[in-house]
Amino acid sequence: MSAINFEGVTKRFGEAVAVQRLDLAIEKGEFFSLLGPSGCGKTTTLRMVAGFEQPSEGHIYLDGEPVETVPPYKRNVNTVFQSYALFEHLSVEDNVAFGLKRRKVASDEISKRVAEALELVELRGRGKAKPRELSGGQKQRVALARALVNRPSVLLLDEPLGALDLKLRKQMQVELKGIQREVGITFLYVTHDQEEALAMSDRIAVMEDGEVKQCGSPEEIYEQPSGPFVAGFIGVSNLLSGVVQNGGVRLPSGQTCLADVPRECAAGSEVHLSVRPEKIWLDELEEGMASVEGTIVERVYVGTTTQVIVELAPGMRVTALEQNTARARSDDRWQIGDRVRLGWHREHARVLR
Amino acid sequence: MSTVESRSASTAPPATGPEVRRAPAKRPKDFDRPRFLKVYMGLFFLLLFAPIALVVLFSFNSSRSLQDFQGFSLRWYETFFETESLRDSLVASLQIALVTMLIATILGTMLAYGLVRARTRLSSSFNVLMLVPLVTPEIVAGVSALLLFTQIGLDLSLTTIILAHITFSISYVTVVVRARLASINREVEDAAMDLGATRFQTFRLVTLPALWPAVLAAGLLVFALSFDDFVLSFFTTGESPQPLPVRIWTQIRFGVRPTINAIGTFMLVVSVVTIGLALLLPRLLGRRESGLKVLLGREGA
């Protein structure tokens, strides 16, 4: 039995369709992310699970039970909001105890569980503080403790790290994943940050315009994107448009790359060739690689790597990443204006319709 | 002045040293604060407060004269509190203000909550309609209230005054509370429901605690407005007891007596204290924002 089941869920606001015929099964104990740009329907999906919105069509099941008629305050799910949504007039302790008090848990049990929850998020000793005395990261932890203390069957997280600065966000990602593993609760995580989703999730559903474009493990999503949108949204991808031609893709520059063309792409049909920058080799290619030739137009040094931008034809550029390891320092290997051969192993290029 | 002198003395270059160009000892005034503004402000406040100050002063006069002050005395206050009809009027005014405050605050808060939280197509038109009582000339409101009460056969009494006062006070409460409510993050209410609070519990445990400085300020504002209202009270009052402002007006028709000054001063004190409470209470009870900001809708958001 899945923790959450969506069956043909559609949500319309007037004329606008926010979520389109969503079918998803989220398993117990899973860290599941809904990933997509703003306005793709991911937050609406989350709010439907929480009970703040009702589906226009279809059904949502929590632990196998349909929840259409269950109001938010009776659902066994809890939410961590993007704005934290802490109760400013209550202390940290009272914020965390809020849910337990509504459920009429005995008071000694409440204080025990509140203490545990604060321990879990490393806020022991700040129980008496008011939310406004806390930093952003601490507020986030209180919001997390306030939700987790109720031991919901699913925890919903709506871009909970969005308001934190980059460094703290990275740190919280690791902690959040650790906490999830520790408590074993199903996490449904909404984010527009693909790196965050890749780093934490067991599975990811990539959404665009209310539809799930691809659903799978981070590796699958990254290595085998199902279409141009997913390839472009997850990480950086070189998307080259071309035409299928005898066992490869013919680019507008006139060069033909060897590639595994899916059976449904007939010769002559228009496709995109997607190659990740870090999979591209520069010169010194191996036997059997697909390759193209171009001119280096830009080199961007970003610390651990150097981005080399190569123009195959006017307006047709490919980005390659060179690791700045101890052995190779790419900054003295190539100059702007050099002709180079770019190559990649066949399995690293995806032909997308 | 002394600090400026001592500083310029200490920073003066040694006599033997090379010639150093010194900064002028006196800094120029800020260009955006011309001095005549202070004079202008002084005149403004003089005009504003002088008449009131005179009333207060002559309420303590020992003679009947309204022109020259002959000595301090509390005799006019004694007359005020010893005259039964005046005392009744004072009690009536306080009753009216208190009941109006309670009912208008509750209704106005509910209206504000509905207008902000219920997302209906009607709420935008209600938002405008609600402002009508604020701009209706009070005399029109008074006449129409009188017509309404006589048509439905309601005898004029304290009840009719209270009804009329509530009608115009609701708008004030709603305007103040609505501004505050709009600044409360909706996710906080969602969070309460998410944690198991019903709608009513959410309002009681989360919305109201965040809202009450505005509710309190609005209530006290209504008290002050109702306490010294004349026009509406005049049209809707019964024979007796009449509220204090109407009572003063009736008395003045038979000649101005110094008791008026005492009553006026007393009313002034009540109003000032009420507004002062509205401004200070939220801060005294441990909130960061003062009631002034709440009333002006300048906090939050």
Oligomer: heterodimer
Low-pLDDT sequence parts of chain A:
none
- Largest sheet of chain A at a glance? 6 strands, mixed
Distance between the termini of chain B: 44 Å
Number of domains of chain A: 2
Please render the helix and strand layout as text:
The complex is a heterodimer of chains A (353) and B (301).
Chain A: E1 4-13, E2 16-26, E3 31-35, H1 42-50, E4 57-62, E5 65-66, E6 77-80, H2 92-102, H3 107-120, H4 136-148, E7 154-158, H5 166-183, E8 186-191, H6 194-200, E9 203-208, E10 211-216, H7 218-223, H8 228-233, E11 238-245, E12 248-250, E13 256-258, E14 270-275, E15 281-282, E16 290-301, E17 305-313, E18 316-323, E19 339-344, E20 349-352
Chain B: H1 2-10, H2 36-58, H3 75-82, H4 84-117, H5 123-129, H6 132-135, H7 138-151, H8 158-182, H9 186-194, H10 199-227, H11 231-236, H12 244-252, H13 259-284, H14 291-295
Helix pairs in contact in B: 2-13, 3-13, 4-8, 4-10, 8-10, 9-10, 10-13
How would you describe this structure in keywords?
heterodimer, A: 353 residues, alpha+beta, Rossmann fold, OB fold (Dihydrolipoamide Acetyltransferase, E2P), 2 domains, 6-stranded mixed sheet, 5-stranded antiparallel sheet, 8 helices, B: 301 residues, mainly alpha, MetI-like fold, 14 helices, 0% strand, disordered N terminus
